[in-house]
Design brief:
mainly alpha, DUF4112, DUF4112 domain-containing protein, two-stranded antiparallel sheet, transmembrane, 134 residues, transmembrane helix, membrane
Length: 134
């Protein structure tokens, strides 16, 4: 197989055909990551959950940018699974919106904790691939 054939589509030689098991495994992995980023910790005395994203995002500007880059990993996995461009665009939009608003002190941090772009993006992927949260 030539490089051109191996990388046809999205540039990855490993995405020619994904088995249902492979897709399920990748979705479980990105769901775990999204949960850590968006909902790993329950605020005491409430039912509200926050994740590492909201905590690191408290650092002025830099924290938001770093977490935005981490959030793009989920989009990258979606790209590797050959999700359609429209879905990828929506996922990138979620990450960009959360990252941009999170740069605003206090109000942005509250938005970040409530919006949960990573869990939204995983839900979009699961919906597209017909999987439910497990």
């Amino acid at each position: 197989m030539t490089y051109a054939h191996a990388t046809a589509g999205n540039g990855s030689p490993h995405t020619a055909s994904h088995t249902a098991e492979d897709i399920a495994h990748r979705l479980r992995r990105v769901r775990r990551l999204a949960w850590i980023l968006d909902a790993a910790f329950r605020l005491p005395g409430t039912r509200f959950r926050v994740g590492v994203d909201a905590i690191v995002g408290l650092l002025p500007v830099g924290g938001s940018v770093v977490m935005g880059l981490v959030s793009l990993y989920i989009v990258w996995e979606a790209w590797r699974l050959r999700a359609p461009t429209s879905l990828l665009a929506r996922m990138v939009g979620n990450v960009l919106l959360e990252t941009a608003v999170d740069t605003v002190p206090i109000a942005g941090d509250l938005f970040d904790a409530a919006f949960k772009a990573n869990l939204r993006n995983v839900a979009l992927l699961e919906q597209y691939f017909g999987h439910t949260a497990r």
